Amino acid sequence: MKAVKVTAALVLALSSAFAMAGEIKDSTIEASNLKNAATGTGSKAHQWVGVAQDNGKISDTQVNAKNAKNTASGTNSYARQEIGVARGNGKLKDVTVHANNASNEASGNNSDARQRVGYAD
To answer: Which residue from 7, 108, 20, 113 is spatially nearest to 50, judged by alpha carbons?
Structure first.
């Protein structure tokens, strides 16, 4: 059985009224103790906290993801955890990311785990 679980804790906070698409500003994103897991052959666990995506931009924001945990288990499983982020054209300005004790883990044959904290692109 294949499991896909996404914690789009794209907890995109309540940004200011004038923020453009793909922009987070003047916000606090609280996602401490967040947990996400997927199990089974080919399982995928995605956990994104913060983010902004196309044309990026995160400014004057605090991202709290202390103790965030993301796990995938099973043959060919993968776990992706991104905390902070921005992507397409990046830019993190006056951003504080707290990810103390955040963990990302994949177990099983041919499994892969990737974690990014901060990040812009």
So the answer is: 7
User: To the nearest 10°, the Cα dihedral for 38, 120, 59, 84?
Assistant: 20
Kind and range of the H or E run holding 58? strand 58-64
Q: 56: which residues sit within 8 A by CB, 6+ positions away?
A: 22, 23, 86, 87, 88, 89, 90, 91, 120, 121
Q: What percent of the chain has pLDDT over 70?
A: 83
Question: In the prediction, which pLDDT does 64 show?
Answer: 96
Please choose, from the candidates 121, 89, 83, the residue with its C-alpha nearest in 3D space to the C-alpha of residue 103. 83
Residues with Cβ within 8 Å of 103's Cβ and at least 6 positions away in sequence, in order, are 68, 69, 70, 71
Query: Number of structural domains, the chain?
Result: 1
The pTM assigned to this predicted structure is: 0.78
Q: Which amino acid is at 65?
A: A
Q: Give the domain range for residue 89.
A: 4-118
